[in-house]
Structures are given as C-alpha cells and as structure tokens.
Amino acid sequence: MVSNIIFRIILVLLPSQLGLHLWPEYSRILGLKIDYLSPTIYLTHLLIVFLLVINNKKISIEIKKHFSLLKIIFILIFVNIYFSINIPLTSLKWIEFSLYFLFFLYLKNRKNLLQKNLKYLYISIFLVFGIQLLQLAGQKSLGGLFYWLGERGFDASTPNLPKYQFIGREFVRTPSLFSHANSLAGFMFLSLLSLRLFNSNFYSKIITLASIIVSGSKNVILFLPLYLIKKTSLKKVLIGSLLITMVLINFSQTLNSSLYTISSRLSGISHSTEVIKNHLIFGTGLGSYLNGLDDNLTGSQITYENLQPVHNIYLLLLSEFGLVGVTLLGITFYFSKISPKQSLILSAVLLTGLFDHYWLTLVQNKMLLTILLASFPVEYET
C-alpha cells in the first residue's frame, strides 16, 4: 500500500525539477556555475530511495537473478570512474545511474503497475500542458508555486530564448516545468507512445500531441510517424542513427551555416570530436564531458551557451565512455533481452537522440524512460 502511494506521487512529480543544487568547486568553469556539473538532490530521487529501502528484499532477489550481467556493469563503472577527469562528479553520476537501475529492477516485476496507475501519469501530462499554455499566453514564466516545481524564470526579452513564428507573430517556445522546450517534447513523445501501447483514451493522446506541437520541437515532430508503427527493428534504427551521426560529423567540419541553431549544433559536434580525440580510449567519465570540452575552448568561447553537452547521444556516450566503455556498453546491450514494446520506446530515444542530449542528462526524461522500459518487460509480452 505504501509502495503504491509513493509510486503514484513519483508519477505526478515526474515533470518537476524540485531539488537542492550543490556547488562544489568542480561544478564551476572559470567561475561560471554550470547546472550539468552541479550535484543535485531531487525530491523524486529521495522518493525512489524510500521506495527501494522498504522493498529491499525484493531488490536483493532481483540483483541475484541478474548478477552475471551486473558483473559487466561493475567493470564498466570501475573503469569509467578510475579514468575520469572529474572523479567526484562521475562517482555521483554512477550513484544516480544505480538508483535508476534499482528502480527499474523493482518496477519490472510489478505486473501492470503503471497501467493500473495511468491516471497519475495523466495528471503529470495535464499539469505540464496547462503550465505550457499559460506561459504561451503570457509569454513569460508563471513564478510562485511553479518555481518550486522547477520552472525556470523567463520572459519574451530573455536572451537566446528559443522562439518560433506563427501567424505573423513571434512566440517563445515555452518549456513548462522543463529546462527547455525540446526536453518537454521528448518527455511528451515517450508519454504519447506509452499511451498508445496502453490503448489509453483519445483525449489524453490529443493533449500530449498538442503539447509536442506547441513546443515547436522540430526534432520530435520529425519522428512523430513512429507513433503509427507497430513494430520496429532496433538494430536498423541504431545502425541508421550511427550513419546519420557520421554525416553530421562531416557537416560540422565543412558546413558554415547561416542558420543560428544549426550552426551552433554543428559547432558543438565539431567540439565533441576534439573531446573524443583527447579521451578516445577511456573517455572523460560519466557526466564529465564539459570538463573535457573546457580544455578545447578559448577564453572567449567559454560561455553558458557553449558549455553544454553535445546535442547527440552517440557522440556524448563516446566522449564520456571512450572505446573501452562503449564496447562494454555494447556487450551489455547485446546480452539484454528487449521486448517489442521496449524496442519502440528505445527507437524513439535513439532517433530523437540524434539531435539532443536530454535522454542522458535531464532528470525528467531519464526518470520517464526508466519507468517505461520497466513497464514493458520481455516476460509480459503476448
């Protein structure tokens, strides 16, 4: 009973970023506080810890069942931390990963747990969309209570804020409780796919789709047809994504785009190739990409805009794990059983991950991905 209540609260709070940011010396670059380097204690993380503590016996059983696979993961963690260029941060990132992994183990054998509590995911979706519309109408953040849920302060005059044109007017791409409208769109995309897999009601799907469109995320809108596909080949999606990444790397070296967004993304890809060259074998360490990037930027280039992860999960993984880590990840992936429904969810992540990093870096997206992968396990496929 208590476990179910905690899980429901987690579902409702999924879009929130309520947490305590810590600012040790390694979270700053030339005096700039960098969110991605800041250890953060989120309320949702504390709820997961509580859930795991009261279900520790079930978790222990699951760990024993998967111990062979865990050996590979343990080796990966040890190597990645040992060779990290920011050992404290990488260690904390692996603790966070372990939290998600244990949460996954707890959820995956709780048959239909998410389906039975789907109305609480609806609440999250409706909350996010409602805040998004109010921000759109006012062209500014709402403040007050919503600040405590993680809303970032902004208005139409905030520098470098993403905008789009509609009916001859310029509108801010409102992010609701997320750090960016693209992260919001990714969250809603996976929510939309899960609603389809659960044969959810029509209105919840329409609201989720509307939120994606209002976000203006071209990346997610481009891959919306995935909603209509019943079965995907994860291997083909992965190979295709890697080929596109190689093309993007080539463009980053040769294309001088006049479009600001494309130009900045390609510049980020170009910088990531330098990080990869410098840390090819063992990587920078999980979460330490920006520390490696710092070494390749001149003083004038060290700005908040440039100090963010590369917008491609494949390049980010190779940067942080190196060839050794990526090989161990590949072995783990190869021996993992993946259900058709998990394959659809992962396909969405692999495709949208071509042009963004939020599946690896932002708490709301990682939490939702963990819950959905655990909710469609192999043994429950029919």
Could you give the topology of this structure?
Blueprint: H1 2-13, E1 19-21, E2 28-29, E3 32-33, E4 40-42, H2 43-54, H3 56-65, H4 67-82, H5 87-108, H6 113-116, H7 118-138, H8 145-148, E5 163-166, E6 169-172, H9 181-197, H10 202-215, H11 218-222, H12 234-254, H13 260-278, H14 289-294, H15 313-334, H16 340-352, H17 358-361, H18 363-375
Antiparallel strand pairs: 1-4, 2-3, 5-6
Helix pairs in contact: 1-2, 1-7, 2-5, 4-5, 4-15, 5-18, 7-10, 9-10, 9-16, 9-18, 12-13, 12-16, 13-15
What does the model show?
- The radius of gyration is 20 Å and the shape is globular.
- The longest helix is centred in the N-terminal third of the chain and has 22 residues, at 87-108.
- The model has no long low-confidence stretch (mean pLDDT 90).
- Helix 1 packs parallel to helix 7 and helix 9 (181-197) packs antiparallel against helix 16 (340-352).
- The protein has one domain (1-382).
- It has 18 helices and six strands.
- Strand 5 and strand 6 form a beta hairpin.
- The chain has 382 residues and is mainly α.
- The strands form three sheets. The protein has a two-stranded antiparallel sheet.
